[in-house]
Automatic annotation (TrEMBL), chain A:
InterPro entries: Glutathione-S-Trfase_C-like, Glutathione-S-Trfase_C_sf, Glutathione_S-Trfase, Glutathione_S-Trfase_N, GST_C, GST_Phi_C, Thioredoxin-like_sf. Residues 1-82 form the GST N-terminal domain. Its EC number is 2.5.1.18. It holds the Pfam family GST_N. It catalyses: RX + glutathione = an S-substituted glutathione + a halide anion + H(+). This is glutathione transferase. It is found in: Cytoplasm, Cytosol. It comes from the Eukaryota. Residues 89-215 form the GST C-terminal domain. It is an enzyme of class 2 (transferase). GO terms for cellular component: cytoplasm; cytosol.
TrEMBL record, chain B:
PROSITE patterns: GST_CTER, GST_NTER. GO terms for cellular component: cytoplasm; cytosol. It is found in: Cytoplasm, Cytosol. Residues 88-215 form the GST C-terminal domain. Keywords: Cytoplasm, Detoxification, Transferase. GO terms for molecular function: glutathione binding; glutathione transferase activity. It comes from Brassica campestris (Field mustard). This is glutathione transferase.
Length: 215, 215
């Protein structure tokens, strides 16, 4: 039986799980949840994800939600196949967790409202809050400087190897890089180098193809 | 050399402290004077580049992000004290799920209430009444989901207390105390019972006794 991912391939949080599946060579099935018609708020989906969000997974009797928790679960369960996403020792794993948590608290809190205003609102015909976007970009600049410094002495966020810490950033980064925020990344030598390496990974290329973002 | 936790008087470091006490791990604390801006000084930024608390130093090893520290301690000392990660990989998946719910969904509105009700005047910014109202509404909707879940589950991840429950302690303690919104917990039968249970654990009582913010 193959794990079912409820969500859609173009949404950032489901992409986090899909990337994990692709890196770990885990077979999966996507069950489409139509966000445009608010299917995620309907009773059937609320049974899988009581906060009315995507993704959720069903793997036989086992159910889980929160994309980062799902990714960690599969990275642990399939630790013997595909890319090792959780580090080589307990201490290394904790640094992976540290930078993965940084994504939640420092990066995503800024990236999400920027993408909401610059990408999603225009698509829905809503007005973008330009003043807010400028404030958020200023804060993001400070955060990116910290990342730049980290990546100056580390090839990836948690050290020499690609881990969950890098993977968890990729969906939101993918969206940010489609806006003029890409200038902020390109202006930082190490962030640019890091992003180029991440996007050269076969799992990312497969995901982009699945999402219809690349030829 | 003993593990050191920086900034014990503040809320986020208490996630690490309560975990250390639950697991019976010896540690020392190092105060950080946020009022004097000690967290923005180079010496502290070398430990935590985002300038927030906690930071943890364990010999040569440094780690930040309170929930990453919790996971590290729970894993390293798995064989002593309560098993805060559950027993199976699936148990751990549930722990990670609710730990992430706390981080992504419960914490942000509660953090707004904390900053705007408890710390606005001290930190010198105007308290945003509209944001307070919206944050209370958001947190209320989240607590409704918790109420339904805790009606079927003794603790968040199952019938065992875990990191997911402990992660809620420090800021919920603010909510029922100085924020003045204990009704949000007390008016919900199962959330209230859960709160009474976890907040009466000896490890949490010891955390508050030793590291409460000086009056």
């Amino acid at each position: 039986m193959v794990v079912k991912l409820y969500g859609l391939v173009t949404a950032a949080c489901p992409q986090r799980v899909l990337l994990c599946f692709l890196e770990k060579e885990i077979e999966f099935e996507i069950v489409h949840v139509d966000l445009d018609t608010l299917e995620q708020k309907k009773p059937e989906h609320l049974l899988r994800q009581p906060f009315g969000q995507v993704p959720a997974i069903e793997d036989g009797d086992f159910k889980l939600f929160e994309s980062r928790a799902i990714a960690r679960y599969y990275a642990t369960k399939y630790s013997n196949q595909g890319t090792n996403l959780l580090g080589k020792s307990l201490e290394h794993r904790a640094i992976v967790d540290q930078w993965a948590d940084v994504e939640t608290h420092y990066f995503n809190v800024l990236a999400f409202p920027i993408v909401l205003n610059l990408v999603i609102k225009p698509r829905l015909g809503e007005e973008c809050d330009a003043v807010l976007v400028e404030e958020l970009k200023a804060k993001l600049g400070v955060v990116l400087d910290i990342y730049e410094n980290r990546l100056a002495s580390n090839r990836f966020l948690a050290g020499d190897e690609f881990t969950m810490a890098d993977l968890t950033h990729m969906p939101a980064m993918g969206y940010l890089m489609r806006t003029d925020v890409n200038q902020m990344v390109k202006a930082r030598v190490n962030m640019n180098r890091w992003w180029e390496e991440l996007t050269a990974r076969p799992a990312w290329k497969k995901l982009m193809k699945m999402a219809g973002f690349e030829a | 050399m003993v593990l050191k936790v920086y900034g014990p008087h503040f809320a986020s470091p208490k996630r690490a402290l309560v975990t250390l006490i639950e697991k019976g791990v010896p540690f020392e604390t190092v105060p950080v004077d946020l009022m004097k801006g000690e967290h923005k000084q180079p010496a502290y930024l070398a430990l935590q580049p985002f300038g927030t608390v906690p930071a943890v130093v364990d010999g040569d090893y440094k780690i930040f992000e309170s929930r990453a520290v919790m996971r590290y301690v729970a894993e390293k000392y798995r064989s002593q004290g309560p098993d805060l990660l559950g027993i199976t990989v699936e148990d751990r998946g549930q722990v990670e799920q609710w730990l992430d719910v706390e981080a992504t969904t419960f914490h942000p509105p509660l953090l707004n209430l904390t900053l705007h009700i408890m710390f606005a005047s001290v930190m010198g910014f105007p308290s945003d009444e509209k944001l307070i109202k919206e944050s209370e509404e958001k947190l209320s909707a989240v607590l409704d989901v918790y109420e339904a879940h805790l009606a079927k589950s003794k603790y968040l991840a199952g019938d065992f207390v875990s990191l997911a429950d402990l992660a809620h302690l420090p800021f919920t303690d603010y909510l029922v105390g100085p924020i003045g919104k204990a009704y949000m917990i007390k008016d919900r039968k199962h959330v209230s019972a859960w709160w009474d249970d976890i907040s009466s654990r000896p490890a949490w009582k010891e955390t508050l006794e030793k590291y409460s913010f000086p009056a």
